[in-house]
Specification:
The complex is a heterodimer of chains A (151) and B (141). By secondary structure, chain A is an all-alpha fold. Chain A has one domain (2-150). Chain A has helices at residues 2-19, 25-32, 45-64, 87-102, 106-113, 118-150. The relative contact order of chain A is 0.09. The chains are: A mainly alpha (151), B mainly alpha (141).
């Protein structure tokens, strides 16, 4: 039941992305192309997706997080870090360059893969490689830090 | 190439994404951050939820077929750039999103809804570098 639920939530998430036009890299790049505002070819759709998604989630999280626990788990898993550090600036800076270059971010790339796009497939293979590499390096650094503290 | 401004479809689509994010929190207590979900499908495993993450990603992939069945047409999609550029873009997106603990969904939709300052900084940063990148590739090169 838990697995089917996750599949269905992924299906809803991806359908939203598709309806919103976010699986089209051209549409993303036309949003990011703010120099096109004067010429009238700027496409502000992405701002509507972000605003609607954030507002709905803000309201929904308020209700959900009042509950003691989620249905299929014993606790809510929320990020604990509150303060800024270098990775939360360096990571998004790198991410943004790739996002601008290809017009794909992770969610829409997976959804675009379902259309049988070989371009999405190339992007995803490279993306997963980059993800796993970043995680392994980050985990190794945490490990080294812990060792230093112990010593 | 010009794309049509779609305020209504994009607002409804955004709301669907929001409902999906709420449901994932209500059922599994998890942030709907795609980069975090994707990378934790792979080892090292720190919990027993890897198969659930695979199911979520399978749902994401299947959604375009579902959408096509429902509407009778494929959603428009146009990619500029060859395989080498896409591979480089993928590498940067993958590395950067995991290094910064989130992408457009985790920091964007979920982080901003939680009024997280870290996520706000992340969103401003990736918007800035993405806008600069598109300016360079579309207007300078």
């Amino acid at each position: 039941m838990s697995l089917i639920t996750q599949f269905l939530i992924g299906l809803l998430f991806g359908s939203g992305l598709t309806l919103a036009g976010m699986t089209n890299p051209q549409k993303i790049q036309n949003f990011l192309d703010v120099a096109a505002i004067p010429s009238g070819t700027w496409d502000p759709s992405l701002a509507f997706v972000m605003a609607a998604g954030t507002l709905v989630t803000y309201l929904g999280y308020k209700l959900v997080l009042k509950r003691k626990r989620p249905i299929f788990d014993t606790q809510f898993h929320l990020p604990k870090k509150k303060s800024l550090d270098a990775p939360v600036i360096v990571g998004p800076a790198i991410f943004g360059i790739g996002w601008g270059l290809g017009g794909f971010c992770p969610g829409p790339a997976f959804t675009a893969l379902g259309t049988g796009s070989s371009q999405a497939a190339i992007f995803i293979v490279a993306m997963l490689g980059g993800m796993v590499a970043a995680r392994l390096i980050a985990l190794k650094r945490i490990g080294e830090k812990t060792v230093t503290v112990k010593a | 190439m010009i794309t049509e401004f779609t305020p209504l479809a994009s607002t409804i689509g955004g709301m669907m994404i929001g409902v999906a994010a709420i449901l994932l929190m209500a059922t599994h207590g998890r942030i709907a951050g795609i980069s975090g979900i994707a990378v934790r499908m792979f080892p090292p495993y720190i919990d027993k939820d890897a198969s659930g993450r695979v199911m979520f990603i399978v749902g994401l992939i299947a959604s375009s077929l579902f959408f096509t069945k429902l509407t009778g047409h494929w959603a428009p999609m146009s990619v500029s750039g060859g395989p080498l550029l896409l591979a480089a873009a993928g590498l940067l997106v993958g590395f950067g999103s995991v290094w910064g603990n989130g992408c457009t969904s985790g920091h964007g939709i979920c982080g901003l809804s939680r009024l997280s300052f870290r996520s706000l900084v992340a969103v401003i940063t990736f918007m800035a570098t993405a806008i600069i990148t598109v300016f360079i590739t579309h207007h300078l090169i």
